[in-house]
Amino acid sequence: MRRSTLVFERGAPAMYSFPHVVTRFDPETRALMRKLPPFAAVRAFEAAARLGSIKKASEELCLTASAVSHQVRALEEYLDTSLFRRAGNRVDLTLTGRAYAGKLTTLLDAFDETSRSVKEVGRKPFRVHCTPGFAARWLVPRLDRLAFGNRVRISVSNGAPSTDFTSNAADVVIQWADQAVSGVVTEPLMRSARYPVASPSFIRSEGLHESGDLCRTTLMHDETMDAWGEWFEAAGIDPPIFPRGPTFPNCELATTAAEQGQGVALAYDAVVRSTLESGALVRLFDTVTMPFVIYSVAYAASRKDDPMVREFSQWIHGEAEAEGTAANAVPVRELSGGRRSR
After folding, report:
1. Is pLDDT at 127 greater than 60 in this prediction?
2. What is the pLDDT of residue 23?
3. What is the distance between the alpha carbons of residues 210 and 200, in angstroms, rounded to a whole number?
4. Where are the alpha helices (DSSP H) in the chain?
5. Where is this region: Disordered (predicted)?
6. Phi-psi region of 103 (alpha: psi -120 to 50; beta: other; left: phi over 0)
């Protein structure tokens, strides 16, 4: 059933009240009113007008000259006006034809550009810039659950990934923390506390049974945001003289060193859960540091309506929520294998 739309003309007497009157055409009504000429005829005329020749238009469109002439005449009949003046084999645009052709060229160029961009969306890679630890321990193992995961191209940064989208060649950045950046949309993704982790073999060899044992063992330090002092304070223990082991550029390298049996690292719960579940690392004790937002999804504000950016954002937030590590979730949980502070 077609929906009718009532429109008041300016100056018409307002004698009655109509509570459901629509004063503008809605999309459905507008579509019913749209009267477009045959596209083949439009295309033939625009090519002939732009190239100034029926013959050249036929070559561009891979049609015969007579077919192009037929399409142009069909458009003239549809519009009920002459677009060309014909003199033998020569054709010249009328004033109406010249104005109409100029508008058609602009419209067809825009149509072509839009169609190409839509087509490229299905082909171009989606570029994500993040830290090595986030990529290896969290993002890569989950990419097969993203609809376009096979098109994701990951680049990593040893330091905090740049959010300068004019130079980082990224569609999305997994930003460290949640600092606001001008011209960038920042969506807090994960909140996490930290706790000590070590390999099973290191725990056995060092005899780590209570939190005080960490004062005599090798600790992996993180020069970006070392939090051992905070952890010992939370555990109610006077910290040892630091450093009691090597210092690494970031927490991922410190965690990897612990995984290799070189000492104890202070790892982020949200990042190492899968590593704990695999048994490569074991959580030590219940004491944790104060949780905070460790990662955010960042992208240029100009791309906030980009369908791929929105889909990626919704997907990655959903993954964090499902795991209980989302920025708005309870920050830390008890995991099997943890040892109580004593």
Report:
1. yes
2. 44
3. 15
4. 27-33, 39-51, 54-61, 65-79, 95-121, 132-134, 200-206, 228-234, 251-259, 269-278, 307-323
5. 323-342
6. alpha
User: Residue 56 contacts by C-beta under 8 Å, 6 or more apart in sequence?
Assistant: 47, 48
Distance CA 231, CA 233 (A): 5
The structural domains of the chain, with segments of one domain joined by +, span 39-121, 127-342
Position 181: which residue type?
Answer: V
Token pair listed for 107:
């419209």
Residue with the larger pLDDT of the pair 217 and 19: 217
pLDDT at 90: 74
- DSSP assigned state of 190: E
The burial of 89, by beta-carbon neighbours within 10 Å (0-12 exposed, 13-18 middle, 19 or more buried), is given as: exposed
Whole-prediction pTM value?
0.65
Q: Is 1.10.10.10 the CATH classification of the domain at 39-121? A: yes
Q: 127-342: which CATH topology? A: D-Maltodextrin-Binding Protein; domain 2 (3.40.190)
Q: Are 72 and 41 in contact (CB under 8 A)?
A: yes
Q: pLDDT tens for residues 219-237?
A: 999 988 899 999 999 999 9
pLDDT of the residue at 89: 66
From residue 328, how far is each of 64, 272, 291 by CA, in Å? 66, 19, 11
Q: Which residues contact 34 (CB under 8 A, 6 or more apart)?
A: none
Amino acid letter, residue 19: P
CA distances from 277 to 198, 295, 321 (A): 13, 22, 18
